[in-house]
Design brief:
The chain has helices at residues 13-27, 53-62, 99-115, 142-151, and strands spanning 2-9, 33-35, 42-51, 72-82, 90-97, 130-136, 156-162, 164-171, 178-186. By secondary structure, it is α+β, with helices and mostly antiparallel strands. The chain starts with a strand and ends with a strand.
Length: 190
């Protein structure tokens, strides 16, 4: 079995640096959390979970191999939390521009996964493209975190070009997950 998800990696050094500073600001509130490593920052298109290795290969061929999208830009903007700032489980930065293309890609992914018999995500959540910064592990200092979220609610991290979508393997370790790219779809030329 392999644990897989489909994502757009955040690799632009300036954005990684700004997101890392935001993670430091979140950590400085004193809220117990597990921060995302800078090399693991990404926009999740679809978390799939544990699947047999053979199915991961089929997803690479039949889903990633069939994605069609142009190169486009996204703007990362606004600090937030799921399900909300006073009950945060995940702290994130949103996508203010380019979300419509991410949604179209998500639609293609869902269609391909359905053809392969992969069940839809639990809870049928609406798709909100974002970059996860940290997972909150307790309720200490939540007020300080809520103030920071309000303060950075409209903060613009920056823009990046999306030229590829990747099928990623996630190996969980005591030090955090290790991600590996299994397959990649490149943007088509205009």
């Amino acid at each position: 079995m392999v644990r897989v998800f489909i994502a757009v990696d955040v690799e632009e050094p300036l954005l990684v640096s700004r997101l890392s500073r935001l993670i430091d600001a979140v950590a400085s509130t004193g809220v117990p959390l597990k921060a995302v490593e800078p090399e693991n920052l990404h926009i999740t298109i679809r978390f799939i979970g544990e699947v047999p290795e053979g199915l991961a290969g089929e997803i690479a061929r039949e889903v990633i191999g069939r994605l069609e999208f142009p190169e486009f830009e996204v703007e990362l903007r606004g600090l937030g939390a799921f399900p909300g700032p006073y009950r945060p489980r995940v702290v994130w930065v949103g996508v203010s521009e380019g979300a419509e293309w991410l949604s179209k890609i998500r639609g293609q992914v869902e269609e391909g996964l359905r053809r392969l018999g992969v069940p839809p995500e639990r809870g049928g959540k609406e798709f909100h493209p974002h970059v996860t910064l940290a997972r909150v592990k307790g309720s200490r200092n939540i007020q300080a975190l809520a103030r920071l979220i309000a303060e950075y609610g409209d903060y613009t991290v920056g823009r990046m070009r999306v030229a590829s979508v990747r099928l990623k393997k996630s190996t969980l370790t005591p030090r955090g997950p290790i991600y590996e790219t299994l397959a990649e779809a490149r943007a088509r030329s205009p």
